[in-house]
Specification:
It is built from 20 helices and 13 strands. With 588 residues, it is of the alpha/beta class. The strands form four sheets. Strands 1-2-4-3 form a four-stranded antiparallel sheet. Strands 6-5-10-11 form a four-stranded parallel sheet, with helices on both faces. The chain has a three-stranded antiparallel sheet with strand order 7-8-9. The chain binds one RNA strand of 76 nucleotides through helix 2, strand 9, helix 12, strand 13 and helix 16.
RNA sequence: GCCCGCGUAGCUCAGGGGAUAGAGCAACUGCCUCCUAAGCAGUAGGUCGCAGGUUCGAUUCCUGCCGCGGGCGCCA
């Protein structure tokens, strides 16, 4: 389907017909647009094994291909580069096909697989902070990319809802309000439907309880005990914990909703609780575990390791499970219940050792067979102006909800500064500010590579000038405005005709690049390639827009062609921005 | 100590072994009786941390060194 595949096939045939591997025929978009639109470098790597001169090979390939009617110009350059320029007629045909393709040229995987994207990972009772931003934004984008590629993708927020902090909160609350029925060891319920604590209460108690656990040994011991009892199923604790979980999720949903991040599953560590004991029994029975100072561990070190990989702890000395235990059980659960073949973890890259341990343990225990792909696609951090992880003036981690509110407020100011969306209804204006703010936040994040740390700069991100989300939205809105005007005048898109000037030709060439860019982004789980692409597309469109005055074009065929180009540009913008999780307003 | 990541223009960042290393911002010069100038055209700005190696070819792959950040069993 894609243009590059066609051209690579053509050149591959030529290489094959002179007795060389057809893989050498690979054609790519040119890095030297002054010399050609495409290039084929195959003669250079082909020369050595064939014991031949690369320029001679290139010349022979060039001669073989030169009769092709799709090609306007071929040249041999340097040590053996072949530069290729298509005829404008052929380019127009290609673009016409692209414009009529519902998928805009983007391919699908041959074999759709069940994929789980694990991202988000906020903790119950704990305020979401900037650290949750990147997994949410990147994970959402990767989920959408893999889904568009044709996979069956399930997004799981995977809450931290089952660890020691739960015990700490139970003990903290039991001291504050011992009269609540949840703490009566002899009671079995039923318990009140109404939560005894709000999410604000929990968020207040959390740091206090966590500090006490560090400073006060008896509190820590009580919390440990409560955690074990909770996990063992003590009715009052379970009921209380359900309240913690419920009010926390409600608060998280609001934040994720603002961010446009949607999960298919709101599972967590607790989801697999019932699987854990049987799993451990089985592993112990199979002799896959070892006791280490009273803890049950799986050795995951390998003789070939260049570094020390500590064993994975399945159960602490006191019997409580750890997050590695539930991660292991979760792999098992996803394979059994969802038929998962690929599991993608979008989690801070600093947790790579943990995932290495868990993945190894899952292989060694046979929980994940060799066909199952396990990936930790780590994300970098969001840094403040000082280059260190983002903090507030008080030195605390910035609340994610505050960050979102800040960005939206700044977007609102930007609209005022630029006298945009003036005179619009209040609710539409608010909606636009929201979308502009989110585009700023997300594009500011996603145009960086997933693993790199980046500096959060609200003024730069929300600017309408330069490589920003708002610039993209502005471009998209301007296109919508043209198409609206065209529709009002009764103008509509027609067949693409041969380009007759550079900005038009360049826009067409750009549009033809999406399939390869998408493939690269999907393969590497790297949305930044799409972010970069969409900026280049808008920039190319703006250059086209500058020179080609669409609505006043007198040549009806050319105008029709341009309108199709404009529509196709908009469709790509909508598609790619959607893959990035960015939504476009109708106007601004 | 061991392991992982990073080091590219004044700043923030891209860069799939290929030719003359890019973008945005900031600086400077032009362009609005014309579909949204939040735009476009142009100028200037670089020993791609340092030193080796592999290769026809290295910012890209490998090794060492320097600098910065991070991780290293009973937290998540």
């Amino acid at each position: 389907m894609s243009l590059l595949n066609d051209l690579s096939g053509l050149f591959g045939d030529a290489f094959a017909s002179i007795g060389l591997d057809r893989a050498f025929g690979e054609v790519s978009f040119s890095q030297r647009p002054d010399l050609g639109q495409f290039q084929c470098n195959g003669a250079l790597p082909a020369a050595k094994p064939a014991g031949r001169n690369p320029r001679q090979i290139a010349q022979e390939v060039l001669d073989l291909v030169s009769g092709d009617e799709r090609i306007a110009e071929l040249s041999l350059a340097g040590p053996g580069f072949i530069n290729i320029t298509l005829t404008d007629e052929f380019l127009a045909i290609e673009l016409d096909a692209l414009a009529h393709d519902p998928r805009l040229g983007v391919g699908k995987v041959a074999e759709p697989l069940s994929v789980v994207v694990d991202y988000g990972g906020p903790n119950v009772a704990k305020e979401m902070h900037v650290g949750h931003l990147r997994p949410a934004i990147i994970g959402e984008s990767i989920k959408r990319i893999l889904r568009f590629e044709g996979h069956h993708v399930t997004g799981d927020v995977h809450l931290g809802d089952w660890g020691t902090p739960m015990g700490q909160l139970i003990v903290e609350l039991s001291e504050r309000t011992p009269e609540l029925p949840y703490f009566d060891p002899s009671a079995t319920g039923p318990y009140p439907a109404e939560s005894p604590v709000s999410v604000a209460d929990l968020q207040l108690m959390y740091p206090i309880a966590s500090r006490r656990a560090k400073d006060d040994a008896s509190f820590a011991e009580a919390a440990r005990q409560a955690t074990v009892e909770l996990q063992d199923g003590r009715p009052g604790y379970r009921a209380l914990w359900q309240h913690f979980r419920r009010v926390s999720i409600d608060a998280m949903r609001d934040v994720y909703e603002d961010l446009g991040v949607h999960f298919d599953l709101w599972n967590g560590e607790s989801t697999v609780h019932d699987r854990i004991q049987p799993m451990i029994d089985r592993l112990v029975g199979a002799g896959l575990t070892r006791l280490s100072d009273g803890a049950i561990v799986v050795d995951v070190a390998d003789e070939a390791d260049s570094k020390e990989i500590p064993p994975l702890l399945l159960a602490k000395t006191d019997g409580a499970y750890l997050y590695g235990t539930s991660d292991l059980a979760t792999i098992e659960e996803r394979i059994e219940d969802l038929g998962a073949r690929i599991m993608v973890y979008v989690v801070d890259v600093r947790q790579s050792l943990h995932f290495e341990q868990v993945f190894r343990a899952s292989r060694l225990t046979g929980i994940a067979g060799p066909r199952v792909v396990l990936e930790h696609d780590g994300n970098g951090t969001v840094n403040g102006p000082d280059g260190k992880p983002f903090k507030t003036r008080d030195g605390d981690l910035l609340r994610l909800a505050d960050l979102v509110a800040m960005v939206i407020a700044r977007a609102q100011e930007r609209l005022d500064e630029n006298q945009l969306a003036t005179g619009y209804p209040e609710d539409e204006r608010d909606r636009i500010a929201h979308l502009v703010g989110m585009s700023a936040l997300k594009f500011g994040d996603l145009h960086n590579h997933r693993t790199s740390n980046y500096m959060f700069d609200i003024d730069r991100f929300t600017s309408f000038e330069g490589k920003t989300g708002p610039y993209l939205l502005y471009g998209a809105v301007r296109i919508k405005s043209i198409l609206r005007e065209a529709a009002e005048r009764g103008l509509h898109g027609g067949p693409i005709v041969a380009a007759d000037r550079d900005p038009e030709r360049n826009l067409m060439l750009r549009l033809a690049r999406l399939p390869e860019i998408f493939e690269r982004a999907a393969e590497h789980r790297a949305p930044n390639h799409l972010a970069e692409y969409i900026y280049e597309l808008v920039a190319d469109f703006n250059r086209f827009y500058e020179v080609c005055h669409i609505l006043s074009e007198p040549d009806v065929a050319r105008q029709g062609s341009w309108l199709t180009l404009v529509q196709t540009t908009l469709r790509q913008l909508e598609l790619v921005l959607d893959l990035l999780g960015i939504e476009i307003p109708e106007r601004m």
